[in-house]
Design a protein that fits this description.
With 144 residues, the protein is α+β, with helices and mostly antiparallel strands. It is built from six helices and four strands.
């Protein structure tokens, strides 16, 4: 009987959260809302010259006088609402996560896949550029 040999090279394992925190800080992005959809209404208010409070003294985020106007412009096609782009939602849907502790991302497979959203590909490029992919595979320990 022959002794089993190692068939797969041991890969580096990273803490997913440490990697993402590093990427977010270095590239000044938010992987949980890559398109910054949560800031769009505030940016619209600023572009109109509206202050932080509306004409009756309510915080612009807590009242809807200006939001009604914002929605009307959105519905008329003047404003295109940015989509909510969440990298983590893509990870849990698309990546192989086993036992809630190990996650595997294959760089080439995801970059070639037409179903991989463009924003995900951009983040994967950042992760790769920082050297977190080894032999096309990123293996992370996911702290749930």
């Amino acid at each position: 009987m022959e002794k089993p040999i190692k068939k797969y090279p041991v890969s580096k394992m990273y803490d997913y959260h440490e990697v993402i925190n590093y990427i977010e800080k270095k590239y000044k992005i938010d992987t949980r809302d890559y398109a910054k959809s949560h800031t769009q209404f505030g940016e619209w208010c600023d572009s109109k010259g509206y202050g932080k409070t509306d004409p009756i003294g309510k915080n612009r985020g807590n009242y809807n006088i200006w939001f009604i106007e914002y929605q009307k412009e959105t519905d008329d096609g003047v404003i295109i609402e940015r989509p909510y782009q969440d990298f983590w939602h893509w990870v849990i849907e698309d990546c192989d996560i086993s036992n809630g502790s190990s996650m595997f991302m294959n760089y080439s497979r995801n970059m070639k896949d037409d179903k991989t959203p463009a924003f995900v590909k951009e983040i994967l490029e950042m992760i790769r550029d920082e050297g977190f992919f080894e032999d096309d595979m990123f293996i992370a320990w996911v702290a749930w």
